[in-house]
Specification:
Helices cover 70% and strands 0% of the residues. The chain is built from 16 helices and no strands. It is globular and about 70 Å long.
């Protein structure tokens, strides 16, 4: 074969390779990871604008903005520097601390807040992958915490065994509570959104009643709605000693990330759950028991939320009341959305929201309203739920491909762009 013929034979291969790399770049730019980063960036930008125009030092400069605009920009710049510096000191490292241990404590607090968000976010993400929408994280967390509290206070066992028993009680309680919604969805067709929302109120009432009775309180009726302090044998030990509140329950939450990844990406059960989530009719035609898959998905979702429950119930020295949920059940929905229902994405989303939660006190010191961080969370949900809005703000981001010719491998969207 001549040199010219070899060159001509290699040309199509080189062109095909170029198209493949272009497809990879397109998929990355149109994927959920880039969209999530853009959503967080836009939320922080809008939060910065809110911080500027609600600051007491900036507002007076607006009265003479056109006469001396430098005063406004100086005040706005100082406000932003102070606010985001406080966020860094409150969530990552306190540069004003006298010792390294004191300086690193904010980071451990971020991890402490992130742990239950990661675990609960995994539970909500699992139902998303299975085509369900579990809004009952609050009720499942309350139920799991109540069961864990009963196991930690009403049963007395040796140290390690007692902790394991209390953890198991929390997981079982939350899983069973979520399984009720799954059973109703599978057997009666009741919508899981309505059922899980209503079960949140039922769980709150039942747990409050149990905390006022000998079931969890150990006293007669009419007492305050709190549990008994758990036995020392049933508590998670501190991870870094008495100077830090971070406990070994955070390690349990990280292990849950690996379990979720293996379950959804490598196991046969996870494959069936994803089949049901993508197309229940096709899954049924392939021999998958859709009703059983729905129940299993909700039970497993509740078990992951139960990890967050035991983190809350057994990761403290004292007792607790019905407010043990602390909004985790609903914030977990945002974590799952931001993380794209993937294990690694939920991990980073939980760490982000844990850092925002840990930064609240430090930002309040510099006169930044803690509600601003709540606005950030809401904006993240808005941008994640509206990809066209993100692409409208960032027009260079392409839309994801939805059609591909299986026979030819043609990608109509890219072909249209080539013909433009």
């Amino acid at each position: 074969m001549s040199t010219a013929e070899q060159t001509r034979s290699r040309a199509p291969q080189r062109q095909k390779r170029d198209v493949q790399w272009r497809d990879v770049a397109h998929d990355i730019a149109a994927g959920s990871v880039v969209r999530s980063i853009a959503a967080v960036f836009l939320s922080l930008v809008l939060a910065a604008i809110l911080i500027i125009f609600t600051n007491e030092d900036v507002i007076p400069t607006l009265g003479y903005l056109f006469q001396r605009p430098s005063d406004f920009f100086n005040a706005a710049g100082q406000t932003l520097v102070a606010s985001f510096s406080a966020m860094f000191r409150g969530a990552i490292f306190n540069t004003s601390a006298p010792t390294f241990e004191a300086g690193i404590k904010p980071f451990t607090e971020s991890l402490r807040f992130a742990g239950p968000l990661i675990a609960a976010g995994l539970g909500i993400a699992l139902t998303f992958r299975a085509g369900l929408f579990n809004i009952g994280g609050q009720g499942q967390l309350l139920t799991g915490a109540a069961w864990a509290a009963w196991g930690a206070t009403m049963v007395h066992l040796p140290p390690v065994l007692h902790l394991l028993f209390a953890i198991l009680m929390g997981l079982v309680g939350a899983a069973l509570w979520a399984g009720i919604a799954g059973f109703l969805k599978a057997k009666t067709g009741a919508h899981e959104v309505i059922v899980t929302i209503m079960m949140n109120y039922v769980a709150l009432g039942l747990v409050t009643f149990a905390m006022r009775s000998p079931i969890l309180n150990g006293t007669g009726e009419g007492s305050a709605a709190v549990t008994l302090p758990p036995d020392a044998n049933a508590l998670f030990p501190r991870l870094f000693g008495p100077g830090f509140e971070l406990r070994w329950s955070f390690v349990l939450c990280i292990l849950a990330v690996f379990v979720y990844w293996w379950l959804m990406e490598r196991s046969a059960l996870g494959f069936r759950l994803r089949m049901v989530g993508l197309n229940p009719d096709a899954a049924r035609a392939a021999g998958v028991n859709v009703q059983r898959a729905i129940i299993v998905a909700m039970v497993l979702s509740g078990a992951f939320v139960g990890i967050a429950a035991v983190n809350q119930a057994l990761g403290r020295d004292g007792n607790f009341g019905p407010g043990i949920d602390a909004g985790i059940g609903f914030t977990a929905i945002t974590v799952a959305l931001l993380g794209g229902s993937r294990a690694l994405g939920v991990l980073f989303a939980g760490l982000l929201f844990g850092a925002l939660q840990a930064a609240r006190p430090a930002m309040q010191v510099v006169d930044v309203s803690p509600e601003i961080l709540g606005v950030v969370q809401g904006l993240i949900v808005l941008f994640i739920a509206a990809p066209p809005l993100v692409r409208a703000i960032f027009p260079f981001l392409p839309a994801p491909r939805e059609i591909k010719d299986i026979a030819t491998g043609a990608r109509p969207q890219l072909d249209r762009k080539d013909g433009e």
